[in-house]
Automatic annotation (TrEMBL):
Its main location: cytoplasm. InterPro entries: Gln_synt_N, Gln_synt_N_sf, Gln_synth/guanido_kin_cat_dom, Gln_synth_cat_dom, Gln_synth_N_conserv_site, Glutamine_Synthetase. GO terms for molecular function: ATP binding; glutamine synthetase activity. Keywords: ATP-binding, Cytoplasm, Ligase, Nucleotide-binding. Belongs to the glutamine synthetase family. Residues 101-372 form the GS catalytic domain. This is glutamine synthetase. It comes from Eumeta variegata. Residues 17-99 form the GS beta-grasp domain. It is an enzyme of class 6 (ligase). One of its GO terms (biological process) is glutamine biosynthetic process. GO terms for cellular component: cytoplasm.
Length: 372
């Protein structure tokens, strides 16, 4: 469609007492997002000013047809980078008709743990990797007909030039959109595989990191839509001979950041080792895809073997050398796949390292869906 034609309508003035609020939520796949717009009389300046809303849960894989009235509960409001102020994006949790969280609503679990352990002031920093695909489903800028890039992967990481990277326009548009929306957006870089990139969220306090990550995924989907490009978070989108897609989680607490915190970091890592297999079940919407990614190649640990090390990018848990030197700081969990739910991963890190919380119950993992 011709954007110049659309621009004619976008210039039409809107009454001062009408704004558009885009409600966003996670559907039944556990990775895809849905949205719809609602006209409000004014810009909501706080989340409690955004009204609850409903939608057809059966059409999004979240409810049965005979009982499909599901509820959207606003949890955070952002400035809309596509329509600009006063229009907004409204991130929502999904609840079923009986008041229970929908199967893919894990925010309640994560938030309950963040609030229970608030005295430890948990921080999360998230590194979202992804792959750009052309409309035919093959890598953007890859030779057509199933061909592979002729260049080595060691030239694509943080690469410059059309020979080594593809899709920089999308990266630039996404970064500016996230900054406009006032997310805790911290940067971008080209990744190891041609047409794969990464953006970073945080470090942010508590559940905000996961909120911002999901909203940044929505913004990326909209930006890529304008360019006719698909975005994939699948952990192994091309195959075993090519790098995978992860979302490394950086995690710290007040005790870790205080003097002597390195000892507590080591204690937490031992707890993570004990719960390794449980975490592996939840660190991707497609656990088998994450097993393919965590092969021991391309700077990954083996899926079934927990490991940790200082400055070791082939370990399950990496400790930065400066953390060891200073005796305090954070650790990086390199196991989560690119399609993981950050609410789940952040919640599991809190629960494993600091203990459970009243009302924090992790729902059963949804059945794997088709790769996204």
């Amino acid at each position: 469609m011709d954007k110049k034609v659309l621009d004619r309508y976008l210039r039409l003035p809107i009454p001062f007492n009408k704004i558009l609020a885009t409600y966003i939520w996670i559907d039944g796949s556990g990775i895809n997002l849905r949205s719809k717009d609602r006209v409000l009389p004014c810009m909501p300046l706080a989340v409690d000013q955004a009204p609850f809303w409903g939608f057809d849960g059966s059409s999004t894989g979240l409810a049965r047809t005979e009982n499909s009235d599901t509820k959207l509960k606003p949890v955070r409001v952002y400035k809309d980078p596509f329509r600009c102020e006063p229009h907004v994006l409204v991130l929502c949790e999904v609840f079923l008709p009986d008041g229970k969280p929908a199967l893919t609503n894990h925010r309640s679990y994560c938030n309950a743990l963040c609030e229970h352990h608030a005295q430890e002031d948990p921080w999360f920093g998230l590194e979202q990797e992804y792959t750009m695909l052309d409309v035919d489903g093959w890598g953007l800028g890859w030779p057509k007909g199933g061909g592979f890039p002729a260049v080595k992967y060691d030239f694509s990481y943080c690469g410059v030039g059309a020979k080594y990277i593809a899709g920089r326009d999308i990266v630039e548009a996404h970064a500016r959109s996230c900054l406009y929306s006032e997310l805790d957006f911290e940067g971008t870089n080209a990744e190891v595989m041609h047409a794969s990139w990464e953006w970073q969220i945080g470090a942010s306090q508590g559940v905000k990191a996961a909120d911002d990550l999901w909203t940044s995924r929505y913004i990326m989907a909209r930006v890529a839509e304008d360019h006719g490009v698909q975005i994939s978070y699948h952990p192994k989108p091309i195959g075993m001979q090519h790098p995978g897609i992860g979302m490394h989680h950086n995690f710290s607490t007040k005790t870790m950041r205080d003097d002597g915190g390195y000892k507590f970091i080591q204690e937490c890592i031992k707890k993570l080792e004990t719960n390794h297999q449980k975490h592996m079940e939840y660190y991707s919407v497609d656990p088998e895809g994450n097993r393919m990614r965590l092969s021991g190649r391309f700077e990954t640990a083996h899926h079934d073997c927990f490991s940790y090390g200082v400055a070791n990018r082939s370990a399950s848990i990496r400790i930065q050398r400066s953390v060891e030197k200073e005796g305090k700081g954070y650790f990086e969990d390199r196991r989560p796949a690119g399609d993981c739910d950050p609410y789940v991963v952040c919640g599991l890190l809190l629960e494993t390292c600091l203990g459970s919380a009243p009302g924090a119950c992790l729902q059963a993992r949804p059945k794997p869906t088709k790769p996204c």
